[in-house]
Each structure stands twice: as C-alpha cells, then as structure tokens.
Design brief:
The complex is a heterodimer of chains A (about 900) and B (about 280). Chain A has about 900 residues and is an alpha+beta fold. Helix content of chain A is about 50%, strand content about 10%. Chain B is of the alpha/beta class and about 280 residues long. Chain B folds into 2 domains: about 140 residues, Glutaredoxin, CATH 3.40.30.10; about 80 residues.
Chain lengths: ~900, ~280
C-alpha cells in the first residue's frame, strides 16, 4: 500500500529508486525483527579472516561472474543517498527524517529554502565531478543561494591554523596504537543502512544543532569521531545499496566489518586517492581474502590487497586479472624480490604500482616476473632501461612493429613474455618505454608510460621526484592518473598532495564532513568546512571539486562567490601549479561565472589576474590553449572577440614562455571562426591579421629578447603552416627575417634554375617530420627554405608523406630545384606530384637529375600545373637530414 | 748449475707474480692495469642497499666462500662493485674509490651479475640472467664457460691479427662464432637499421637470393648476424608468396646456424606458423 502511494506520486526513475529503498527498508525491518544487535566482534572477525573456510563462504561461480560483470561493466554511478519517510521502522524513522527534512535546515535561512522533501545532496564526489565534469552534478529545483558570507582573510588564516593543528594531531596519533572499535560486526553490516543511521545520528548529536567550524574541528580531534566520519564516508562513497550487495556475501561483510573497526584501515582505504567504484573495490577485496587467503592483519598484504582491489575496480578491470596482480606483488614481496622502495610506499603510491595497466601483457604476471628477475636495477637505473631494446620500426625480417607478424615467430620461444620478446627482437618508442616503466613497476617502484605527440615516453619516481625518460616533447599524456587529468603537472600535484600526508588527511576529513553536513542541509557549516578544507590544503584537487560542486548547487548565480573562488584558486594553487589552476578555472568555473559577467572589461580583468601569476611556465611547459579557448568561448560578438584577443595577446606576447603558443592559438581560433556571415567572418579575419602583425611587430629584437622572439615566431609560423594559412606564414617569415636576421643562413647557392619566376617564394612549405619542441622553435627557417638565401627544413619520406608546398596561386610549372644539406643517396626513387586542391594528386612522371646535393626536376613538356606540389619517395627508410632550398619555378595563372 | 738455479728462481718468481696479480682487486683502474691485453676482468656487481636478492648473492658468493666459485674467481682478476640506490656520502666515496673516473661498462642489464671486460674496458660478456644467477654452482659453471670462451676468442683474434687474406677471414669467422663473447672491435650488423631490409624490398626473389648469398659470403658476421640476414631474406620471400618449399629451406638453414639463439628460435617459430601450417589451413 505504501509502495502504491509512493508510485502514484513519483516518476519512473524515482519509482526505481524508491523500490530499492523499499527493499532496503524491508531488510532493515527484517534485521531488527531478527534481533539486530551490535556487539564487539573484532577478534572473531579477525580470526574469521584468518581461518576463513573458503569453501563454506565462497560465492558460487555464478555469483562471481555476476560480480565480475558488475565491475567490468563499470560500476554504476554512485547512488545518491536518499531516504524516504517510509524507509525505516518507527524507531529509527526520526533519525532519517531529521537528516533530510526541511526542518533540519537549522543553520540556513529557512525562509529561502524551497527544496522538496526528497532533496538529497550528492556528495559532489571529487571523482565523479572530476571525470564527468559538472554535467553530472545533481540538479535541484528551486535553488536559492543560501551560502553564508565568505570568511575574511583573517578568518581564513585562523581556519588554516586550526586545520594545521588537526593535521599535527593526526601526525602525532600515528605513533600511538591505531584506534579500533568493534562496534559493528559482520552481522551488523548486513544492513549498511542501519549502520549509517546509527553513526550519522551519533555524529549529528555530538555536533549539535548549529555546529561551527570550531565545533567540527574539536569533534575531529578524537579518533572515535574520525572513525565515525570515515564510516559515513565509506557508506556515502560506496553507496548504501551497493554496500549492501557487498555485505550480502559473508566474506564481504567480514571485510567491511574489519575495515570499519580500524581507523587506520579506513583512512588508508578512503584517503589514498579516488574512491570511484568503492563498492566494487570492497567486493574485490573480499575476493582476495576468499580466493587468495590474504591475511589483512599483515600490513603489507593489506596494503597490496586494498590498493589492487580499489584500483582494479576503479579502472573496471577484471577480477581474475586483479587476483593475479595481487598474487604477483604479494608473493614477490614475501620472497624478497621487490626493490626496497616498495617496503615503505604509502597507499597512494602503491596504487600506482599495483594498479598498472595490463597493456599488451606488459602488466601480466609472467612479464612482470621476468622483468623483476632479469632487470633488477636501482630506481634511477630504470630511466635508462629503455636502451636495452634495439630500436627497430621493422624487425630484421622486414615486418612492421605495428603488425602481429613482428613478434609472432618468437611468441612461443619467449613463453609469451612480452618484455622478453621485445628485448630480443627490438621495438620502437612504445616498447622501449614500456620496458623501462614496467621494469620499475615489476620491482615495486612507481612508474608509468606517457604519450607524447607521435611518441611514447615514460616516467619513474626516483626518491620523491618524478623523472622523465625517453621524452622528446613537452606534451606528456600520463597513462596513469587519479583524476582523469593526464598532464604532467597533475602528477606533480598528486605527488605533492599526498606527500603532505597529514595536512591532506585533515583536509579530506573536513571535506567529507562538509559533504555530510550539506546532505543534512547544514549549509553554513558545510560551506565553512569546504572553505577550511581548501584553505588548509590548497593542493587538494578533489576538495576543490567538491567545493565547486557544492557552490554550483547552492549558489549557482552568486557572482561574488564564484569570483571569490576564482581568485582563491589563482592565488593559492595557481601560485605554483599554473596548469592545474587554469584547468580548474576553464573547466569548472568559467562556464558558471562568465554568464554572470556580461561586461568584457570586467572579465578581462579577471583573466589578467591569472596571467599575472604566470610569468613563466612554472613547473613544466603546459598548454595554455584550453584556458584561452574557455575565455574566448565567453565572447559572443566579433567585436568582443577582437577586444579579447587584443587584451590577452598584448599581455601574453611579453611573456616569453607563452607568446608563441598564444599567437598560434590566436591564429587557429580566428581560422575556426565562422559567424555564418562570410563577409563578417572575412572582415574579422583581416582585422585579426592586422592585430597579430602589429603585435608581432612589437616583439623585442634586442639581444635579450631575441631568443624569445625567435621561438615565439617559430611556434606561430608552425601553427600557420598547420592551418595552411599562407599569408600569415609569409607575414611571420618576413617579421622573423626583420627581427632575427642573424638566425637565417646566407647561402649563395649555385645551380641552374628554370624559366619563369620562383612561384614558391610566396607559398607555404610543410614537412612530414614530427617536430619536437626545438624543431618548432626553428620553424621560421622553413620559410627561409623558399627564399633566395635558403633556410632549413627536416625531411622524411614515407610513402605519400614528404615535402609539401602550397603556392600562393595556381601556376603552370616549369621545374623544381631542391637543395639538400647532404649528398642525395639514390637508393629510392623520388616522385614529384602536383595537385589543384591538395587532395587529388598527379604524378608528373619526371625523373630528377641528381648531382651531389642538388636535385632538379625539369617539367618542360610535362604540362604540370597546380597550386600544390609535393616531393615523395618510395619506401620508408629513415633519413636524418635537411633541405636548405626548395624552389618551384613557373608562371602564376590568371 | 747456478744458471739453472737462477732460471728456476726466475720462473718461480714469475709464477708467484702472476698469482699475485690474480684474485680480488681493490679498484677497477688497478684491474685494468693488471689485465693488460689478454686477461679478462670479472666485475661482480650487486645491489648493495636496495635488493635482497643482490645481498643474498653477495653473501652466498663472497661471504659463504663457495669453494668452487671462489676458486674460479681467485684465478682471475676480479672486482666487487656494490651498486647503491640513493647512495649516501660514504657509499658514494666507496663507489668512487672502486670505479675512479670509469663508468660501468655498457651491456649490464641487471644486478647481481658477473660482467667480463677486457683490459681496455670493453664489455665482452656477462652472467646476469635470473637463470644464470640462480645459485653459486650455476654461476660457477656459466662463468667458467664464459672465461673459456673469452680465452678462446682472444687467441683466435690474436692469430687473426697476425694473419692475412683468406686465413685471416677464417680466423675472424671462427672468433666471431663464439657467441657468448662480444668481440671488441666488431661493429654489430643490423639488417633492420642499415638499409638491408629496405633494399631487398625492391628485389625479385632471384635478385634477393644473389644479394643475400653474396653478402654472407663476403662479410664477416657472428652466427646471430647471419641468422638475421637470413631472416631478412625469408621475410621478403614470405611477403612475396615464395614457394613454401623455398621458405622451409631458408628457415631451416637459418635455424641450423645456431638453434639455441633467439633467431634459431625465431626460425623454428616461423617454420611452425608460416610453413608447416600452410597445408593444414
């Protein structure tokens, strides 16, 4: 009957949720009816875990498969903890109602509260927000801004001091016996809802009706209270219904009971990185106990088990692989085969090790074991381990590394050990980098591979410092991340965040309390706790996300709050981690705040504050373009766009680290601009072209500025080349010659030309070579290649990829002269092709005359014409040289 | 008589002197001096402060005084090199005392290991895989064989340096056929990186055969290099749908050069997946 009434008033989705809750309610009632009791069972649990009879309590095969599917399909989004009025029996109904009833909004302005009684605040889970961005944030109807005034600077300073005291207390407590409490047995955990109810009510009672931040900090000073908060977080992060699934299994219940009885165990599980799919992680943990007989009382086994389980669940990897990975590290440790570094790794660091990707079997137990035993080096030795492989794009049989034939004949002989197979046969950057990184991982040292444009490199942590190896480019896409953000700076942030262990734990606790209080509509205290959490530990990315999620819900249109948040991010985290701050602002704050600031000058002021922090790249070269894109996105008219460009480029052009990227970004943004009105778009592009030429003209050419100007123009001309923007390419080339004359060669080539004019001199030249950072900075020399005195452009001929020239106009061609830096080896035929559109090519069928370093194609009688010319070569042999001059002769068509 | 006694005394002194030269040597520089042109130097490198396996190997080999292995070592010039992770000042000083300005030779892939270098510091070979380092007995066997191979190769190289023409080539080939020892001045031949793989792509089967046979006849290659050249040829045949019998013959020839090498195994695998399976498909 109750269910029927509920169904009448709810949507389908709500009905589904309520049905689940109804089932949960029945379970709770049943538990109460069966005589639910809480009694200390710690020792019993411990013994159970130790002497567990696997056969008696192991799940059936079908159950395991189901669990496996649950995790493999990637655990469903964390369920909002929502309790209906009917969810528990009378004795506990009040507890729940108090938490979610409007009447509980004790410290908020109740007159402004208009949310429905079914309102529930989703955690603003950092992982969820971090990965799925804000679109997944819960929508609340009738939102009103109920957030209190932001604390003053003095108040914040005081908050930080109080927070630091908590951090100091946590550090001091580590020396005492870990706090244990066997209040909740495995049986009790058969109903996580009931446990949650008991603990949350206790916390609320202790905090009082209108708790202040000081009350919260005082509350957190005792371990029993911290343990209560951790239990609440466990329930909220795992989700009550998912947790109930875990504890429905006897081993699962034992594991959760054991975890919840020990504050240290809870802390290690909850505050050592992201907690996505926490319930899946707990399932995996119970599987390790059931199938591998792991003794969680052993600190290293526990560390390996918890980190492997949480990481595999988080990544959605299979249970079988997880069990094998656990066994590998556990047995390797027991046999004393891991590097000493592993012995003292913290949980978050161990997650990087045990949670390494399988990746073409590099992470398989047999490949790891082989590397562990055959590539035993001190930590910094792994930075050079990549050189143990011979670099071969094609193996000696001529098979490409990108085909299965490459390793096929030795798969059996090498016992399918990936690392061994590549060491014997060789490989390219991917194999070399995996070999280096997985060598370290196999020994228990944190490491990871990282993608770079057209390349793979890797990083190894040596001491407390991450070091790159085999890197050729400034862009690094880390292959293991905590928050789905792959830039190098986020790795450094992660390292710095968790190295500051106790401050981070204190900050995490405050953030968790804030989330809990927000769910209870204690908005004012929740706000203060979030504020204190990020004030105490500004590197706490998940706490910032949770805070922003909270503000989005509670103060979506409160411009003052959002501007304050931007300024705080800029002033605190932005001080050192420019990219992190830029990412946060661009992704999570601008979409919220820019619509609230229609005035462009006001916005530009805000943007300028950020750029003032960034005199240089900071930690590492980073990509400023997503930030500029987000700022540009807010401009609605071409006039606004131009004003924005002028403002931002004027600022950035004087910063040597950023000017090149900013110019290149500007050109790309303008190239992409299309207002629908062709005339307006063209005018905008012309205006921008004038702006950019004028700005570049202002770049310094003095001795001090010349290097920055040269590399800035190099990046800009590279972008123009990529865009196929001939006029900008030419304009930048001329500016470069004017400002950095001594950077250009003054060759006096001697060769026979062809009739007509050099039509390529006003064109654009590109190469198939993937340019590294140094190569891009010298890109103005590409322009020089088309000019009389020459320049330099690296070449690579692979199939249809070679040297391309886009002429200013479609032309009738009479010949081509290419001047090489080194004598031309005639081991592969050259082809000269022409095209009108750059897509459909015609081979001129003319063979070149090659004399030492000079190549000539006489096109007389070939009827060759077109706007595009390309020089290609058969085969794909690696050649490392440059072209110094490239001259296409002909007559432009009218 | 006096003359004979004098000669005998001199011989005894020389023998004693030679023995004094052998055994544990304090520094790498000293070992290089002692080794001269012909003698090998054994470098026992082990992880001293980061690796239980390395420590166990050190204890088993150096402290427990495994007699057989110790006997082998004492007959040679050997240096014990502790490898430190994040060395402190004392450890850095110790490493510097042993290595001086020298760097560890290239070719060491893992610790603990026994690397063999010649008097010029060239890396010539190593006992370093987990299987070879399993226990002192296995180490001793592997090391003894390696030292024997080193002597054999040194002698052949010395003879070759004095010979000329076809005889020199024969001696060089013989020296290079000792696969466990890396010859000092031999530039490794890699068909994948020196253009052979690309070059053969443009050839007909007959041209490729002539080219490969000519290259093998003219050059001086190690057995593995010869197998690699055969692999290049076989790969070209395979991609150009050469008759299965020809492919079988080439892979068999390649395997038989040295069935124990990785390219011997490669040929065996190729026979299985690309030749023998053809009729079965």
């Amino acid at each position: 009957m109750v269910l029927f009434i509920i169904r009448r008033n709810l949507s389908n989705e709500e009905i589904g949720m309520t049905s689940n809750l109804f089932k949960m309610m029945l379970a709770v009632v049943a538990a109460v009816a069966l005589g639910f009791v809480s009694y200390p069972l710690g020792e019993v649990i411990t013994n159970l875990l130790r002497k567990h009879d696997a056969a008696a309590i192991a799940r059936s095969k079908a159950d395991k498969e189901r669990d496996h599917r649950l995790v493999s399909d990637h655990t469903p989004p964390q369920e909002t903890i929502t309790i209906s009025d009917n969810s528990v029996d009378d004795s506990s109904a009040d507890d729940w109602q108090q938490g979610f009833d409007d009447s509980d909004a004790a410290d908020t302005d109740s007159s402004s509260e208009s949310e429905s009684s079914s309102f529930a605040f989703e955690d603003g889970d950092p992982d969820l927000v971090g990965i799925t961005e804000e679109k997944d944030a819960p929508e609340v109807t009738g939102q009103t801004n109920v957030v209190p005034e932001a604390p003053s600077t003095v108040q914040r300073s005081s908050m930080a001091t109080s927070g630091s005291k908590l951090a100091a207390l946590l550090e001091k407590d580590k020396e005492t016996e870990p706090y244990t409490n066997n209040e909740f047995s495995a049986q009790a955990w058969s109903s996580p809802t009931q446990v949650y109810s008991v603990v949350s009510q206790r916390v609320l009672n202790k905090l009082g009706e209108k708790p202040t931040l000081e009350d919260v900090l005082a509350f957190l000073s005792t371990p029993e209270n911290r343990r209560d908060i951790a239990i609440i977080s466990l329930c909220r992060k795992a989700g009550l219904s998912e947790l109930a699934e875990v504890t429905a299994d006897p081993m699962g219940a034992n594991v959760v009971a054991a975890l919840s009885s020990n504050l240290q165990w809870l802390t290690d599980t909850l505050y050592s990185g992201p907690t996505n799919s926490l319930a899946g992680g707990l399932k995996y943990l119970s599987s390790i106990c059931a199938n591998r007989g792991a003794d969680l009382n052993d600190p290293v086994t526990r560390r390996i088990a918890i980190t492997t389980a949480t990481e595999f669940a988080r990544e959605g990897w299979s249970e079988q692989d997880m069990l094998e990975r656990f066994s590998y590290y556990d047995s390797s440790y027991r046999e004393g085969k891991l590097n000493k570094i592993f012995d003292t790794l913290d949980y978050w660091e161990t997650r990087i090790v045990t949670g390494n990707r399988e990746c073409e079997s590099w992470g398989s137990p047999r490949s790891l074991a082989w590397q562990r035993d055959n590539v035993r080096l001190p930590a910094d030795g792994y930075l050079n381990a990549c050189t143990q492989l011979v670099y071969r794009l094609r193996n000696v049989a001529g098979d490409s590394v990108f085909t299965s034939d490459y390793l096929a004949p030795i798969r059996a002989a090498t016992n399918n050990i990936t690392a061994l197979a590549y060491r014997e046969i060789g490989g390219v950057c991917g194999a070399c980098s995996h070999y280096g990184a997985y060598g370290a991982l196999a020994a228990g040292i944190p490491a990871m591979t990282m993608g770079e444009p057209g390349h793979c490199a890797y990083a190894v942590r040596v001491g407390n410092e991450w070091k790159m190896s085999y890197s050729i480019y400034w862009q690094h896409n880390m292959h293991k991340t905590f928050w789905g953000l792959h830039d190098w700076e986020f790795l450094i942030l992660t390292q710095d965040l968790y190295s500051d262990k106790y401050t981070t734990q204190a900050s995490d606790l405050l953030s968790d309390v804030a989330s809990f209080l927000a769910a209870r509509r204690l908005t004012r205290t929740a706000f203060n706790c979030f504020d204190a959490a990020v004030q105490l530990q500004p590197r706490n990315w998940p706490a910032w996300l949770a805070f922003a999620g909270f503000l989005k819900q509670k103060a979506p249109t409160d411009k003052k709050r959002w501007v304050d948040l931007i300024n705080r991010i800029t002033d605190t985290i932005g001080d050192k981690y420019h990219n992190v701050a830029a990412t946060f602002e661009a992704r999570y704050i601008y979409p919220q705040v820019l619509p609230l600031i229609p005035n462009l000058s006001e916005r530009n002021k805000l943007f300028s504050a950020f750029f003032r922090k960034c005199e240089n790249f900071g930690i590492v070269h980073w990509d400023i373009t997503p930030l500029l894109d987000a700022q540009f996105e807010g401009c609605k008219t071409n006039e606004d766009r131009l004003k924005f460009m002028k403002s931002v480029l004027s600022t950035l052009i004087s910063k040597k680290d950023y000017c090149g990227t900013a110019l290149a970004w500007g050109m790309k943004a303008v190239g992409n601009a299309d207002s629908g009105d062709q005339a307006a778009t063209e005018k905008f592009q012309q205006d921008f072209s004038r702006l950019i030429t004028s700005l570049m003209g202002r770049m310094g050419s003095g001795k001090k500025d010349k290097e920055a100007t040269w590399s800035g123009l190099g990046e800009a001309i590279f972008a123009a080349g990529q865009n196929g923007d001939t006029s900008t390419f030419q304009a930048i080339g001329k500016i470069a010659l004017n400002k950095c004359k001594d950077k250009f060669p003054k060759y006096r080539f001697k060769f026979r030309g062809f009739p007509g004019k050099v039509v390529s001199a006003t064109g654009l030249i590109t190469t198939a070579v993937t340019l590294d950072e140094g190569g891009i900075k010298k890109c103005c020399l590409h322009w020089g290649v088309l000019q009389k005195n020459g320049g330099s452009i690296p070449f690579k001929f692979e199939g249809k990829n070679g040297i391309n020239v886009k002429l200013d106009k479609n032309s009738d061609l009479t010949g081509l002269v290419a001047l090489f830096e080194c004598p031309v080896v005639k081991d592969r035929p050259f082809h000269l092709e022409v095209s009108d559109d750059g897509q459909n090519w015609t081979d001129t069928q003319v063979d070149p005359e090659i004399a030492d370093k000079i190549m000539r194609f006489d096109l007389k009688g070939s009827d060759a014409s077109g706007r595009f010319v390309r020089l290609t070569r058969e085969g794909d042999k690696w050649e490392n040289s440059n072209i110094l001059g490239f001259y296409v002769y002909g007559k432009p068509k009218k | 008589m006096i003359r004979h006694l004098f000669l005998l005394s001199l011989s005894l002194l020389l023998v004693i002197g030679t023995h004094a030269q052998a055994g544990l040597t304090r520094s790498y520089s000293e070992a290089l001096k002692k080794a001269g042109n012909d003698k090998p130097i054994i470098l026992f490198c082990y992880g001293a402060n980061f690796d239980q396996v390395g420590k166990a190997a050190y204890d088993a080999i150096m402290r427990d005084s495994d007699k057989e292995l110790k006997r082998v070592l004492n007959k040679e010039i050997y240096v014990v090199i502790p490898i430190y992770q994040f060395p402190n000042e004392k450890e850095q000083a110790e490493f510097k005392r042993i290595m001086g300005k020298h760097k560890l030779p290239g070719g060491i892939w893992s610790y603990p290991c026994f690397a063999i270098v010649d008097g010029k510091g060239n890396f010539r070979g190593a006992v370093q895989s987990a299987a070879q380092m399993e226990n002192p007995k296995i180490v001793q066997e592997a090391l003894t064989k390696l030292l024997g191979d080193f002597d054999k190769q040194q002698k052949l190289l010395a003879q070759a340096s004095r010979a000329s023409g076809a005889n020199k080539r024969r001696l060089m080939r013989e020296a290079l056929s000792i696969t466990s020892i890396k010859p000092p001045d031999h530039e490794p031949f890699d068909p994948a990186n020196n253009g052979m793989v690309q070059k053969i792509q443009l050839m007909s089967i007959a041209e490729a055969n002539r080219y490969i046979r000519g290259t093998l006849a003219e050059g001086i290659f190690t057995p593995v290099e010869r197998q690699m050249i055969m692999a290049t040829y076989a790969g070209h045949l395979r991609r150009n749908n050469a008759p299965v019998d020809l492919l079988r013959a080439v892979y068999t020839e390649m395997r038989n050069i040295d069935p124990t090498s990785i390219y011997g195994a490669y040929a065996e695998g190729a026979l299985e997946i690309w030749v023998d399976s053809v009729g079965k498909k």
